[in-house]
């Protein structure tokens, strides 16, 4: 756990890709930027890890050395609400990610649960998703993989992943933690996060259901987001002022509740916006200290 909020990008920024350096060089460069978290993107992986074990281990070692909190984002091609072969393939993709998480010593395996089926109720879909996760966890435990499974709040209304559903999964399945994508919650509720009170209500419902320790060490994603009546359309940078939600409101809630979240920037300006969010929290904290 951490005693300060942490900030970092979802994957390597463009300038780093242009260096053509090994990913294991990234933590050190993020540390030089004053960042201390990184979500490794395994979002296009199939059923086997697409990183070599040695590279993954080096990345993990360098992240620890540079005090960068490492997590991994699993494949987009996962649907735990499906059946038969699709479900089995989804399970294998998550396990591949879990194996890499073990190599890297990543703390959390972030993933999207999948799309509601047309044939069953949302409640039954949720139940099936929980059963699938219990099976995946059993496999992980047999392989001594200790990273948490992190189901993420989903931005599209067709996807399982309302706040309530994510909290239920975390109540029902061991070794899980909720991943709160604030942009997705905003889009799913079509503009639901208007001010700090809206963020506060979410923080309180997480605390009520999963406890203080979980809410204090929350793993989150943040960016501005564009949405339609179906929910999320695309992520935008914090410069795109016509879109929300406002990070300032989340910063107020972080400070007022003394939270130490890991905030991953999923903006197109990955590290730039991570630094911007870090500066907003630090600046607000200084001001609130002076007023006190
Ligand atoms: Zn996200």
Q: Can you walk me through this structure?
A:
By secondary structure, the protein is of the alpha/beta class. It has one domain: Divalent-metal-dependent TIM barrel enzymes (TIM Barrel). The chain has 11 helices and 10 strands. The strands form 3 sheets. It has a 4-stranded parallel sheet. A 4-stranded parallel sheet has the order 2-3-4-5. A hairpin with a 2-residue loop joins strand 8 and strand 9. Helix 3 packs across helix 4, helix 8 crosses helix 10 and helix 10 crosses helix 11. It is globular and about 60 Å long. The two termini are 28 Å apart. The model has no long low-confidence stretch (mean pLDDT 95).
Known CATH architecture: Alpha-Beta Barrel
What is the CATH superfamily classification?
Answer: Divalent-metal-dependent TIM barrel enzymes
Helices, by number, come to: 11
The number of distinct β-strands equals 10
